[in-house]
Every structure is written in structure tokens, then in C-alpha cells.
Write the C-alpha cells for this entry.
Amino acid sequence: MVDDLITDLSKISDLLVIARNSTSAYKGKPVQIKQVAEDLGVRYVLEGSVRKAGDEIRINAQLIDAMTGHHVWAERYDGRMKDVFALQDRITGKIVSSLAVKLTGTEKQIIEEKGTKNVEAYDAFLRDACITSE
């Protein structure tokens, strides 16, 4: 999920998106958002969680202004695993609109491009990615 969001958001010329490897040092640790922003040289921090129960998935996402500590946007998405890609697209769209970023026609088209529609293949890919990144 993180990789897909980073990929989609990094295609937008008005956004500076930090690589996942740069943020992995903070994973699972209690951190101060302002300190993370200072360390990485960013103004906004996106945080969230993904939970899965059977075929159900719940995604929580919060976009935080690191200077003020205030939420710019926060939302919870519930759906089925077969709809995970549509949920990701909705999250990306909400982030872009929350930051009032203007997209070019090409950027809109790139963001709307889909990867695989096979949820089982995507789930297997994620399991593989978790195994190889540990």
C-alpha cells in the first residue's frame, strides 16, 4: 500500500515525496511528527494503518501539517480486498485535493492507470515483499 501511494504521489510534479526507505526508520516507533518532518525536510506527513479480516479491509489515513501538528485530512475506508485498488485511488485523490495540488492532464492520466486487477496476485506480491524486506 505504501509503495503504491508513494509511486502515485511521486508522479505529481508539485509534490516532493520522500522514498519509503527514508521513512522506514520510523516504522513502528513512537515519533514526533514535527521531528520527522525536520529530519526529512518535509511539510506534510502521511500516516495510517491497514487492517485485514478475511475479505474485509480497513484503511486509516491521516495527512498532517507538521508545522502545526493539525490534521489536514483524515479518513477511514472500509471495503473488500477485491476493491483495494479503488480504495488506494480514492486515498491518493483525497491527498491531492487536500493539498490543493493542480494536476496536468498527463498527471491525471498517470494516476488513473491501474496495475493488476487480480487481488490474489497482489496479495501474494505483498507477502513476498514482506518476506524479502525482513
Summary: The longest helix spans residues 84-98.
